[in-house]
Structures are given as C-alpha cells and as structure tokens.
UniProtKB/TrEMBL annotation:
GO terms for biological process: isopentenyl diphosphate biosynthetic process, methylerythritol 4-phosphate pathway; terpenoid biosynthetic process. It is an enzyme of class 1 (oxidoreductase). This is 4-hydroxy-3-methylbut-2-en-1-yl diphosphate synthase (flavodoxin). The gene is ispG. Binds 1 [4Fe-4S] cluster.
C-alpha cells in the first residue's frame, strides 16, 4: 500500500515560493486549498463563524471580500480570530487595499492595472511590503480589460495571459515579487489553455480555479475536469473550487481532487462500489453514514466498502481497512489488506467507525514521532 508506482508520479512545475502569512505557496510546498466566505465581511461574528467551519474542513487559506470601509474596519477582528491566513478581496478602490494591509491581511487579491495611476499602485505595493502581504493577481475572462477585448475580439487564452503579464509588470516595476496569479474562466477549455500558456511564461505560483463553475454537482465535475487536467500536468500551487454551495463544501471538494491525484492526503479516502443486486448490505446508505461519521478524521488513511465478494477482496488488499458484504448478514473485515474477522449487520457501522478512529490514532502517533504534520503524498501511495 505504500509502494511508490512510477505511473502514478506527477512532476510538478517548478515555481518560486511565496508566503501567504505562515503558509508557503509554490516551490515544493503542498498544494494549498482555499475558499471564500459569502457572509458580509462587516458582520465579523458571522464571517468568523463561517471561517471556523472552513478551517474545520481543512482550508489552508480563506478569502473575504472587502468592498467598503465597514468591511476593512471589521477585518482586523476577523484576522485575529482566524487560525489560517486571510486574503482580502479588493477590486477597484486602492484605499481598501491599504486598509486591509494595515488590518493584517496576509494577501491582497487585487489587479494593479484596475486601481488607477502608477502612484496608486506604488502606494499599494508600499503597504504590502510594510505589512508583509502577498498579492494575488486575479485575471477573469468575465472582466477582461476593454482594450484586450477590442484587440482579440473575445476572451481567449492569449488575452487572459496578456492581461496577467501586464499586471505582473506593474508589480515588478515597483520591485514587488511576492505575488501569485490566476487566469480563471468558466469555460474549461479556455481556463486550461490559459493556465498552460501562462505556466510557460512565468515562474510565480499559480492559483487554479474554474470560476463560476456552478452548483455542488455540476461545479464539482467542471472543476475536477479543468483543475484535474492542470494538476495532472504538474501545474498549480494553490486551488479554489468555485461552487454555488457553502464554502466548506468547496474545501471538501478541493481536497478530494488533490487526494484523487495523490497530491494531498488529508482524511479518509473511501473506495466504494456503486452497489448492485449482489450487495450484502445497503452500500449507498452505509457509505453516506460513514462519510458523515468520519468527516472529523484528518489523518490520511484508506477505507474500502464493497457490497459483495466479486471486487471486495481485491480492493481491500489496497486499503488500510476493508469491508466486504457476505451472506446471512455477516460481512468480512480486512485490516491492512488481510482478512481478519466478521461483523454482523447490526454492529457494522459502529464497528467500522471504531476501527477507523483507532487506525487514525495509530497513524497520528507515528506521524508525531516522525515530526510530520502531514504524510508526504508520495509515501501515501
């Protein structure tokens, strides 16, 4: 189960590393998972509550909107309460960026070309440097500059990349290099092509996203296809799954994408069958219950839940804990890929939860002894 297989290896694009608060982004740092709050930032209590749920889901970085002075006035309280770095989302008013930097934001999401004069850009850069802020340049196909739309006729990869390079130059002209860049689009083909082109043109960290992806199911599919293609190609240093869903759902989907590619290892990786008439127990309901009961587990481990003995033993050999449906209400439990004991229907759910929690505690102790906060992705394979 810990064997490293060459055909599973992803060679990540080489990028320079920046710091977003105390979180490294780029270089050899783990790919971070981000989300964004949807509460009014001026309501500090509601925003902090939502950030807490995102933190519990595993978010590495959280972004909040700062469209007005009420929002930046509340930002200091939010930053102090948060356990993760906070990114202040700024669009056009440079003074909001200055206020956010002074309030303790770890990063400013701002496009320097959209805030006016060169002196305004210089002011933002000075504030970012003085407060140790990074900057994220966020190019979006839905809000490209008019001159680029006139030049190219429509949003296209060349237009997105040219916009990104123009914004980068404004920062570089002021000797600022602590930036990361996104070139997002809701069209999967456009976003992927733009990111691939940009990856060849710059060495900074790239923030991946398929913007306005949709609801929980549709948006998850679009994001998985788009970001999955890029991550598989080694492109991407931090990700945000943009869903019309609660922010913590974005975090969960983000981790599932990274886990499926072996790029992060947080939590329980469940292998389960779609179920059929051969099933010895209700696989669908069992998996739903297990995912809910085990959502608090942060330690990386694998669990297979198969309804019958056709594929069950094979899958169980590859997971830490396995469950295969049997006859007469008795089911086989596998530990570390080896058949171990039977469990009856009425005891099955509680028993598997207990086994997973016990295994997680063992792994956590081993990680602590080794001085690790997260199992390296390649080791988890």
């Amino acid at each position: 189960m810990n064997e490293i297989r060459p055909w599973r290896t992803i060679h990540r694009r080489t990028s320079r590393q920046i710091m977003v608060g105390n979180v490294p982004v780029g270089g050899d740092a783990p790919i971070t998972v981000q989300t964004m709050t949807n509460t009014p930032t001026s309501d500090a209590a509601a925003t902090i509550d939502q950030i807490r749920r995102c933190e519990d889901a595993g978010a590495d970085i959280v972004r909040v909107s700062c469209p007005d002075t009420d929002s930046t006035a509340a930002l200091g309280q939010i930053v102090r309460a948060a356990r993760v770095p906070i990114v202040a989302d700024i669009h056009f008013h440079y003074k909001r960026a200055l206020e956010a930097a002074d309030a303790g934001a770890a990063c400013l999401r701002i496009n320097p070309g959209n805030i006016g004069s060169n002196e305004r850009v210089a002011e933002v850069v000075r504030a970012a440097k003085a407060n140790g802020c990074a900057i994220r340049i966020g190019v979006n196909a839905g809000s490209l500059e008019k001159d680029l739309l006139e030049k190219y006729g429509e949003p296209c990869p060349d237009a997105l990349v040219e916009s990104a390079l123009d914004h980068i130059k404004l920062l570089q002209d002021h000797d600022f290099h602590e930036y990361k860049v996104a070139v997002k689009a809701s069209d999967v083909f456009l976003a992927v092509a733009a990111y691939m082109q940009l990856a060849d043109a710059v060495d900074c960290p790239l923030h991946l996203g398929i913007t306005e992806a949709g609801g929980l199911i549709g948006g998850t599919v679009k994001s998985s296809i788009g970001m999955g293609n890029l991550l598989w190609a080694g492109i991407g240093d931090t990700i945000r799954v943009s869903l019309s869903a609660e922010p913590e759902q974005e975090v969960k989907v983000g981790f599932e994408i990274l886990k499926s590619l072996g790029l992060r290892t947080r939590g329980v990786r469940v292998v389960s069958c779609p179920s059929c008439a051969r099933q010895g127990f209700d696989v669908i309901r069992t998996v739903q219950a297990l995912e809910e009961r085990l959502s608090h587990i942060k330690t990386p481990l694998s669990l297979s839940v198969l309804g019958c003995v056709v594929n069950g033993p094979g899958e169980a050999r590859e997971t830490d804990i396995g469950l295969t449906g049997g006859g007469a209400g008795k089911h086989m439990v596998y530990l570390s890929g080896v058949t171990d004991h039977h469990v009856r229907d009425e005891d099955m759910l509680e028993h598997i939860v207990e086994l997973v929690e016990k295994k997680a505690a063992e792994i956590e102790a081993e990680m602590s002894e080794a001085g690790l906060s997260e199992v390296p992705a390649e080791a988890a394979e």
